[in-house]
Design brief:
InterPro entries: DUF1023 (IPR010427), PPE_sf (IPR038332). By secondary structure, the protein is α/β, with parallel strands linked by helices. The protein folds into two domains: 203 residues, Ferritin (Up-down Bundle), CATH 1.20.1260; 280 residues, Alpha/Beta hydrolase fold, catalytic domain (Rossmann fold).
Length: 587
């Protein structure tokens, strides 16, 4: 297989052949039914008896069995041709996407897949920011080689499968009812994943799980629209959560998956506690999507899954076309049902506020739950000891990929992208920002934060001037002590808890801290207090909030005026008007 052969191939001929065989199989089924009812059935019901009748029935039954076997054989040829055509089409799309990328960046591709490029000029040799042409060329060569190998493999496997049917026709095995039934059972079990089955060429032809979002997006866009629709219907679970896929395609696939998961969980007996919670959550998301149908802005289901505690993401407005995009990460005690309720409300409210502040710009506001949040009962100084940092690290990796996917699928000029984390979600955002490569965000907003794992705003990769912090004075999570401080205030927290419950534990803990005189007051459980001057971010104005834990969730309730400016300030940042944000003194 070489580049011109695959590049110029026309898989539509295979699709046409598949349709012809499907039509032939359907017509043959009609003839077999006519024989079965018009000849075999009539003789069997005629009342004819005796030796001659027995011999006639045996002969007719053999013919009926052969006709049935032949129909089963014919009916399986069309799927073989169709799968081969789709696999070849996927490989061709990968190749064409790679060739387009090569052409756009000045690379030359030989017929055998080799990649070359002109030597760098003097300016490029001395430019430290010049692209690494050798690395880019190697990546292109590997992509092209993979596409050629996949096409050659699909061609070989399809030919082998078709050869079996020609051998059956030549030997007569295709007319044996037992053989046909056995192969049908094997094919069904393979399709259901209950046996080794045969290789799924189409699934194998999709970009690998480690393919970058830009490659996924290029591959998808190179597919013809009718093939895109076939894949979305046949492989929704494999496509709906792929970072880099266009948002409308993700939404279409994920709605199919959502309905299937609800049906599956509803049919099970003895669900675990978390399965019951996920079923409740998925039903809430279904209801939310029905409620939002036909409204503005349109809602898109960008993520759905039953891993762990459940996964979901809902966007208000299309991130692929919006001028401004914000992706909000929730924290403590968030369950998947919240994505059909309060967290979706927050995303929708922030969209509305940003839209009202600057109607000339389009906005997409996303609520993203792509990880398992800590489930903590009550509030205590060492509450995050239960959570640890593993969830934030895993969530940070997933969130980084999600934001990279938003960049890859966006059309036209890049959007102004804001990463927003609340509570433990701010720690998750901080972990994503500190991963190799960082996050492709323009601004970072942290509200109700117990720390980000960073000591300085500059460590979050967007520049300290683009890190924004909202911390209500009555929000206990934004005051939680460091590890060392928590050890010194355990006695005070215990006394407070006995006297007044969880809030008393926090108050007693702070009192114990002051009596014991422990630690740096600007050090929180997960690093430097983002609202402190030492962290170096912008602290924006928020109201003190109600007394107690309610203030931890109050940031979206504060409008413009006596109730504080939290929502307005977040909307200004999201819409690219950070110069109009009202500030607040550091702690």
């Amino acid at each position: 297989m070489d580049v011109p052969t695959l590049r110029d191939a026309d898989p539509n001929r295979l699709f046409t052949a598949a349709e012809a065989y499907a039509a032939l199989a359907a017509a043959f089924a009609g003839h077999a039914d006519t024989w079965r009812s018009g000849v075999d059935g009539r003789v069997s019901a005629s009342g004819w008896s005796g030796t001659a009748a027995d011999r006639a029935r045996e002969s007719l039954a053999r013919t009926t069995g052969r006709l049935t076997a032949a129909h089963l054989e014919l009916a399986r040829i069309a799927p073989v041709l169709r799968e081969g055509a789709e696999a070849f089409l996927l490989a061709r799309s990968k190749l064409r996407a790679a060739l387009a990328n090569a052409d756009a960046h000045g690379f030359t591709v030989a017929d055998d897949g080799g990649v070359s490029w002109p030597p760098p000029g003097a300016a490029e040799r001395h430019d430290p920011d010049a692209p690494d042409r050798a690395r880019q060329g190697t990546e292109l060569r590997d992509r092209i080689a993979d596409a050629l190998a996949e096409a050659a493999h699909a061609d070989q496997v399809t030919a082998q499968r078709l050869r079996r049917y020609t051998d059956d026709a030549r030997t007569g095995a295709g007319l044996d009812p037992g053989t046909a039934a056995m192969r049908l059972n094997s094919a069904v079990l393979g399709a259901l994943g209950l046996s080794g089955g045969t290789e799924d060429l189409v699934r194998a032809g999709m970009p690998g799980p480690d393919a970058p979002p830009t490659e996924v997006n290029s591959w998808w866009k190179a597919l013809p629209p009718d093939e895109q629709q076939r894949l979305l219907r046949a492989y929704p679970a494999e496509l709906g959560n792929r970072d880099g896929m266009p948002t409308p395609a993700r939404d279409q696939a994920n709605r199919i998956v959502l309905d299937r998961m609800v049906t599956d969980l509803s049919s099970r007996q003895d669900l675990s506690e978390w399965d019951r919670k996920k079923l409740e959550g998925f039903r809430a998301i279904q209801g939310r999507l029905r409620e939002d149908q036909g409204k503005q802005p349109p809602a898109y289901l960008m993520l759905i899954g039953d891993q762990g505690q459940g996964r979901a993401a809902i966007a208000y407005g299309n991130p692929d076309t919006a001028d401004d995009v914000v992706a909000y990460v929730p924290g403590l005690n968030t369950e998947v049902k919240n994505m059909g309720g309060g967290d979706a409300d927050r995303a929708r409210t922030l969209w509305q506020s940003a839209h009202d502040l600057d109607p000339s710009r389009s906005t997409a506001s996303i609520a993203w739950l792509g990880y398992d949040t800590p489930q903590i009962k009550g509030v205590a100084p060492d509450m995050f000891a239960v959570a640890g940092d593993e969830r934030a690290q895993q969530g940070g990796a997933a969130y980084q990929g999600f934001l990279q996917g938003l960049r890859a699928s966006h059309e036209g000029a890049p959007a102004h992208l804001t990463a927003l984390g609340h509570s433990y979600g701010s720690f998750t955002v901080g972990q994503a920002a500190q991963r190799p490569g960082g996050i492709p965000a323009d601004d970072v907003i942290l509200v109700g934060s117990p720390g980000t794992g960073a000591q300085r705003a500059s460590q979050l990769g967007v520049g300290a001037d683009h890190v924004w912090v909202g911390a209500a004075e009555h929000d206990p999570v934004s005051h939680l002590p460091s590890h060392e401080e928590a050890k010194g205030i355990g006695i005070g927290a215990g006394i407070g808890g006995v006297l007044a419950g969880p809030l008393g534990a926090v108050a007693g803990g702070f009192l114990g801290d002051r009596i014991a005189g422990h630690g740096d007051s600007h050090e929180l459980w997960f690093g430097q207090d983002p609202a402190s001057s030492g962290f170096g971010a912008h602290r924006f104005d928020v109201a003190d909030g109600p007394l107690g834990f309610a203030s931890h969730s109050d940031y979206w309730n504060q409008g413009d005026g006596r109730d504080g400016h939290s929502l307005r300030n977040m909307a200004l940042i999201v819409s690219g008007h950070g110069d109009r944000v009202s500030g607040q003194e550091y702690r």
